Amino acid sequence: MAINFRLFRNGAYLQSSVTLFVFFAGWGIWWSFFSTWLDKTLHLSGEQIGTVYSVNSLTTIAVMIAYGLIQDRIGLKRYVVILSSAVMACLAPFVIFVYQPLLTGAFGWGVLLGAVYLPFGYTAAVGLLEAFSERMSRTYGFEYGQARGWGSLGYGVAALFTGFIFTINPQINFFVGSALGAICLVVQVFWKTDKVPLAPGHTSHPHTPSLREMASVLKLKSLWVVIGFVIFSWTFYNLYDGQMFPNFYRSLFPNEDIGLHTYGVLNSVQVFAEAICMMLVPILMRRIGVRNILLLGVTVMTFRILGAAVFSDPVIVSVVKMFHAIEVPLFILGIFRYLTLHFNSAVSATLYLVGFEVAAQVGNTLFAIPFGALRDHIGYQPTFYVIAGVVACAGIWGFFALKKDDQDVQGDPFIRSGRSGVTGLVRTARS
């Protein structure tokens, strides 16, 4: 089985799983229809929607860097996680009384205030919570993917209802998001893991990296290889999947409400499948290796985008969307393990937030507006061909540029099934 049920006696695994479940449910209840809300409810153009995404990404970069630096300094203390949860709890009042009126009446101010609020609770917090959970998994001895799978499950549960709620009144989605944010806040404040036994090789007082150590990661050429790979693969995939695909999918139906309902149900089914894949990918990774998992993820990305570019039948496009359930676990779990394998795992939060999340946001900042304008001028499917071409080129470059699993092991060694010992150098386990 993908889950060893002894995990449910691990309090840290349970706390991490509940946190990710509630966070992703609270995000998914509105984020999966965010571009549709901007388009259908607020009647913004493709270029304006691209502006919202681009500026959000720009401020997300700064918040992510701050989150990573602080979290690596404080280890497993939850001060920053509590802050992000408190911001989540304020979602509905902010959107209804501040964000929406400004976007429709004073667009520039709305974009700026949204770009301040959203990163602290969502677009930067997602990387923070994932990095925090991954560090807990190494400290307390459980597979990160098996906790992250509950996050996908939470997103799927939310997506099952969000399309139907959205057609009644989008404000309900934001109120539910606030309620789930409040639950996440309670979990962080009151659910302690101090009594949970540590994994072998870990201590209750792990090495705290200095600011010099954390800043030094930016001098590593190998990290910039990862950043470039992420920008031209994951970023462009997000342009397609988040900014464009929901509205494209809705346009395939003669009635918008039917399209919204169908997309909500499909999104939910896809994310339920993603949750299962999150728990299975670590098993596959032990068989084929970390680098191969990443390259497989980019391959699936390319075929999914091409599928939407080629086909316009709703049934076929729905099948194509299900590839998302495979691609996301392959890429996210692969990039996490690649970073903790080839870099110092003591700065894992900084590495993940800078090497993956910040890199993706840099790409969104650079490309969201021009690709939104491109979609306005040539349509969805021709734009999808361009995006697929960029992702395919990134995969080919990654094949030559990414390190093999036994090259330059600076972090936690990787154990691969079917081979004796570990891949790379054996080092003492670190938090």
Q: What attributes characterize this protein structure?
A:
disordered C terminus; mainly alpha
Structural commentary:
- The protein is mainly α.
- It has helices at 11-31, 34-41, 46-74, 79-89, 91-105, 107-123, 125-140, 144-168, 170-190, 211-216, 221-251, 256-288, 290-310, 314-321, 324-342, 348-378, 380-401.
- Helix 12 (256-288) packs antiparallel against helix 13.
- The longest helix has 33 residues, at 256-288.
N-to-C terminal Cα separation, in Å? 27 Å
Q: Specify the helix fraction band.
A: over 70%
Oligomer: single chain
- Strand percent estimate: under 5%
> Which structural category fits the helices and strands?
mainly alpha
**Helix segment count?**
17
The averaged pLDDT comes out at 83
Low-confidence stretches: 420-431
Strand count, sense and closure of the main sheet? none
Q: Tell me the series of helices and strands, N- to C-terminal.
A: HHHHHHHHHHHHHHHHH
Query: What form results from the Cα inertia axes?
Result: globular
Q: What does the radius of gyration come to?
A: 21 Å
Number of strands: 0
Question: Helix and strand layout, with pairings?
Answer:
Elements (H helix, E strand, L loop, with lengths): L10 H21 L2 H8 L4 H29 L4 H11 L1 H15 L1 H17 L1 H16 L3 H25 L1 H21 L20 H6 L4 H31 L4 H33 L1 H21 L3 H8 L2 H19 L5 H31 L1 H22 L30
Helix pairs in contact: 1-7, 1-8, 1-9, 2-11, 3-6, 3-7, 3-16, 4-6, 4-9, 5-6, 5-9, 7-8, 7-16, 8-9, 8-12, 11-12, 11-13, 11-16, 11-17, 12-13, 12-15, 13-14, 13-15, 13-17, 15-16, 16-17
